[in-house]
Every structure is written in structure tokens, then in C-alpha cells.
């Protein structure tokens, strides 16, 4: 009796680790660095490098495997993805390949021929496409945050209430589908400080503005709040953004919705404040990186 997990452990992982180790070595990683990134010993890396590990050719030549190895190698080398994110991407691919009739399912049936006659789909793990989508949103958000953290002068744009860069899934319906920075981004002694890794469901205010804009037709998936200044509005307009004012003293969702309906092309929303309300600008965009780039252009 052999489980599909044994195929993963005995065939898939050694093959993918070998391919990924080779990819990283080709990018200039030392043996020690490859071992650290992959979470394996240097002796194991040496075995991969010298061909002492059996590689499954069917797995190694699968287009999806090769594409993911290239993607992970590029991301790990550029430090745009972490080893944990790489693990999640591989986990998602494994689940896909375990689906009935797919590569790992075929290898499983060949190892246990009786399964082929059973007539069932042997998808041991249900694939969760939402996992891949969510991780991509978080990855984009992390890249956007790095842009802001390294942008000279960004702290001048952080409002007293703090800034938050948020991004949502394609089918976002509520704040749980929007990722942001827990506790917001603050100016600490002249430095933009991100207190924790981004998570879903931690932003209410900026997330609400983003969701309201989307519900009323705005083609946006990310946003940030920055301090209000008429000169910033002019600069954003000069860059080609359409600005629309809304009233935050009223129901935010309704006010944002009305502003978007008046001008569906608006990617900059602003309110000039009121009693107990700090004036703010909300910059919206297709993803977290583009929003962060827009804000960086203002400093």
C-alpha cells in the first residue's frame, strides 16, 4: 500500500529541490546560501549538484514544474519572495498535480495499479485556489511596502492617524478580503515604520474606501491614505490621475460611491476634513506596487 504523499516525498520533492538548487547555483548562490534558502543541509545541496539524487524525468520536464522553478528562482534571488512563500507556491502545485488524472495522480496509479480501476478521483488534497490568490495579494503588498519604506521623504506624507497600504482579492466583498498593515504605518523618528507583516482583515477604514470605490465601478484593487495638501492633488492631476472629493463626515461608503459614480475614472479621492476629522487623500490603483510608486513620485 502506497499513499500519494509518498510519491510527493520520494519523487516530487527530490526532483524539485534538485531543479531549484541548480537554478539558484546558476544565479550565483553559494552552496551555503542554497542550503539556507531551501532549508536543507549543505551535504544535500552537494548531492543535488553532483547528480547523486534520483530525479523523476516526467516531473522534471513538466511545463508547470519548470515554470514554477524559474519563478521561484527569480523571486528568491531578488528577495521578492520568502522561502515560506515559495513553500506555499509548491504546496499549491502539488495539490494541482494530485488531482484525478494529473501527473502525481498518474504516478500514484502506476505505483498502485488497483487505483486506476477504482473509478474515483484521487485528489487527496482539495486544491484551494484562494490560497494562491491570497498569497499573491500579500506578496504584492510586501513589495509595495518595501517601496514606501525606502522612499526618501515618504514620512512627510504620513497623516497623524497613520497610513495604511491595502490590497484586495479579485472578488473582494468585505474587509476580510482586504490585506493591510496591522496597526498602520507610522513616522517613528523620521522613518516609515511598518509594525508587522501584512494580514487580511486588519484594515477597516482604508479598506472600506477601497471596497466602496470598487462596488461603484472603480477598476482598482489597492489603495493608501496620505496627508491632504492641495498641491499634492495638483501634482497627481498633472501625472494624469483624476481626483474626486467626498464627504467623510457622512457615511463613507455612500460618499465614496457618489464620488465614483460622478467620475468613474477617479483614482484619487480626497476629503478636506471637519470637526474631529483629519483631511486625507486616498490614492487608488490596480495593485499595491503601482500605488506605492505613485506615492513615491510625490516625494
Describe this protein's structure.
By secondary structure, this protein is of the alpha+beta class. A seven-stranded mixed sheet has the order 5-2-1-6-9-8-7, sandwiched between helices. The radius of gyration is 24 Å and the shape is elongated. It starts with a helix and ends with a helix. It has two domains: 4-127, no CATH class; 140-296, Class II aldolase/adducin N-terminal domain (L-fuculose-1-phosphate Aldolase, 3-Layer(aba) Sandwich). It has twelve helices and nine strands. Strand 8 and strand 9 (280-285) form a beta hairpin.
Can you tag this structure with a few keywords?
single chain, 299 residues, alpha+beta, L-fuculose-1-phosphate Aldolase, 2 domains, seven-stranded mixed β-sheet, two-stranded antiparallel sheet, 12 helices, 9 strands, ThiN, Cro/C1-type_HTH, HTH cro/C1-type domain-containing protein, Aldolase_II/adducin_N_sf
Write the CATH fold name of the largest domain.
Answer: L-fuculose-1-phosphate Aldolase
Mean pLDDT: 88
Q: How far is the first residue's CA from the last residue's CA? A: 64 Å
Report the count of strand segments: 9
- The number of helical elements comes to 12
Count of discrete domains: 2
CATH class of the largest domain: Alpha Beta
Order of helices and strands: HHHHHHHHEEEEEHEHEHEEH
Spatial order of the strands in the main sheet? 5-2-1-6-9-8-7
Instruction: Provide the CATH architecture of the largest domain.
Output: 3-Layer(aba) Sandwich
Structural Rg: 24 Å
Structural class category: alpha+beta
Major β-sheet annotation: 7 strands, mixed
How much of the sequence is in beta strands? 5-15%
Query: What is the 3D form?
Result: elongated
Give unreliable regions as ranges. 119-129
Summarize the amount of helix as a percent range. Answer: 40-55%
CATH H-level superfamily title of the largest domain:
Class II aldolase/adducin N-terminal domain
Protein name: HTH cro/C1-type domain-containing protein
Domain HTH cro/C1-type: 27-48
GO molecular function: DNA binding
Pfam family, one: HTH_3
